[in-house]
Design goal:
- The chain is mainly α.
- 48% of the residues lie in helices and 4% in strands.
- It starts with a helix and ends with a helix.
- The longest helix has 14 residues.
- The protein has a two-stranded antiparallel sheet with strand order 1-2.
- The chain has a single domain, classed as Orthogonal Bundle (Cytochrome Bc1 Complex, Chain D, domain 2), CATH 1.10.760.
Protein backbone atom coordinates (compact mmCIF):
# COMPACT_ATOMS: atom_id res chain seq x y z
CA UNK A 1 0.00 0.00 0.00
CA UNK A 2 2.71 2.47 1.00
CA UNK A 3 4.82 1.56 -2.03
CA UNK A 4 1.84 2.12 -4.29
CA UNK A 5 1.20 5.54 -2.73
CA UNK A 6 4.82 6.57 -3.16
CA UNK A 7 4.81 5.51 -6.80
CA UNK A 8 1.48 7.21 -7.49
CA UNK A 9 2.69 10.43 -5.90
CA UNK A 10 5.85 10.32 -8.00
CA UNK A 11 3.76 9.78 -11.10
CA UNK A 12 1.54 12.74 -10.26
CA UNK A 13 4.55 14.97 -9.73
CA UNK A 14 6.01 13.89 -13.06
CA UNK A 15 2.72 14.46 -14.85
CA UNK A 16 2.46 17.95 -13.39
CA UNK A 17 5.90 18.84 -14.69
CA UNK A 18 7.10 19.51 -11.16
CA UNK A 19 10.26 17.44 -11.43
CA UNK A 20 13.20 18.89 -9.54
CA UNK A 21 16.17 19.76 -11.71
CA UNK A 22 19.37 17.83 -11.25
CA UNK A 23 21.64 19.96 -9.08
CA UNK A 24 24.81 20.98 -10.91
CA UNK A 25 27.06 19.10 -8.51
CA UNK A 26 25.31 15.85 -9.51
CA UNK A 27 25.36 16.45 -13.28
CA UNK A 28 27.88 13.61 -13.69
CA UNK A 29 25.38 11.31 -11.95
CA UNK A 30 22.34 12.28 -14.03
CA UNK A 31 21.42 8.63 -14.64
CA UNK A 32 21.40 7.83 -10.93
CA UNK A 33 19.56 11.05 -10.09
CA UNK A 34 16.86 10.36 -12.68
CA UNK A 35 16.51 6.77 -11.48
CA UNK A 36 16.01 7.97 -7.90
CA UNK A 37 13.50 10.51 -9.14
CA UNK A 38 11.62 7.98 -11.28
CA UNK A 39 11.35 5.41 -8.50
CA UNK A 40 10.16 7.82 -5.84
CA UNK A 41 13.27 7.97 -3.66
CA UNK A 42 13.00 11.74 -3.40
CA UNK A 43 9.64 11.47 -1.68
CA UNK A 44 11.54 10.56 1.50
CA UNK A 45 15.25 11.21 0.79
CA UNK A 46 17.36 13.92 -0.75
CA UNK A 47 20.85 15.31 -0.50
CA UNK A 48 21.80 17.98 1.98
CA UNK A 49 18.94 17.56 4.47
CA UNK A 50 16.79 14.98 6.17
CA UNK A 51 13.22 14.56 4.97
CA UNK A 52 11.10 11.59 6.05
CA UNK A 53 14.28 9.54 5.80
CA UNK A 54 17.92 10.51 6.24
CA UNK A 55 19.87 12.67 3.82
CA UNK A 56 21.92 10.44 1.58
CA UNK A 57 25.18 12.00 2.77
CA UNK A 58 24.27 10.82 6.28
CA UNK A 59 23.72 7.30 4.95
CA UNK A 60 27.08 7.41 3.18
CA UNK A 61 28.78 8.61 6.36
CA UNK A 62 27.22 5.87 8.49
CA UNK A 63 28.44 3.12 6.16
CA UNK A 64 31.71 4.70 4.98
CA UNK A 65 33.99 2.11 6.62
CA UNK A 66 31.69 -0.86 6.16
CA UNK A 67 32.97 -3.24 3.45
CA UNK A 68 29.46 -4.69 3.10
CA UNK A 69 27.78 -1.30 2.73
CA UNK A 70 26.80 -1.68 -0.92
CA UNK A 71 25.16 -5.08 -0.35
CA UNK A 72 23.49 -3.75 2.81
CA UNK A 73 21.97 -0.76 1.01
CA UNK A 74 20.86 -2.93 -1.90
CA UNK A 75 19.11 -5.17 0.63
CA UNK A 76 17.45 -2.16 2.29
CA UNK A 77 16.21 -0.92 -1.08
CA UNK A 78 14.90 -4.38 -2.01
CA UNK A 79 13.37 -5.33 1.33
CA UNK A 80 12.75 -2.03 3.06
CA UNK A 81 13.69 -1.33 6.65
CA UNK A 82 12.09 -0.56 9.95
CA UNK A 83 13.35 1.93 12.50
CA UNK A 84 16.94 2.14 11.27
CA UNK A 85 16.90 5.96 11.23
CA UNK A 86 13.44 7.15 12.19
CA UNK A 87 10.19 5.64 13.42
CA UNK A 88 8.87 5.33 9.87
CA UNK A 89 9.23 2.25 7.69
CA UNK A 90 11.04 2.36 4.39
CA UNK A 91 9.00 0.43 1.81
CA UNK A 92 10.48 -2.42 -0.16
CA UNK A 93 11.23 -2.10 -3.85
CA UNK A 94 11.17 -5.60 -5.28
CA UNK A 95 12.74 -6.47 -8.64
CA UNK A 96 9.54 -5.60 -10.51
CA UNK A 97 9.93 -2.00 -9.24
CA UNK A 98 13.73 -1.62 -9.23
CA UNK A 99 15.98 -4.22 -10.83
CA UNK A 100 19.02 -5.53 -8.99
CA UNK A 101 21.28 -3.61 -11.39
CA UNK A 102 19.41 -0.38 -10.60
CA UNK A 103 19.52 -1.06 -6.85
CA UNK A 104 23.29 -1.45 -7.21
CA UNK A 105 23.49 1.82 -9.18
CA UNK A 106 21.56 3.68 -6.46
CA UNK A 107 23.59 2.13 -3.63
CA UNK A 108 26.89 3.09 -5.28
CA UNK A 109 25.64 6.63 -5.89
CA UNK A 110 24.49 7.07 -2.28
CA UNK A 111 27.79 5.73 -0.95
CA UNK A 112 29.73 8.09 -3.22
CA UNK A 113 28.32 11.16 -1.48
Amino acid sequence: MLTRNILLTSLLIALCGCKPEIPKQYANNATEWQLAEKTGCFMCHTTGKNLLGPAWENVAERYRNNPDAEAHLMDRIANGSRGAWVERDMPSYQANLISEANRKLLAKFILSL
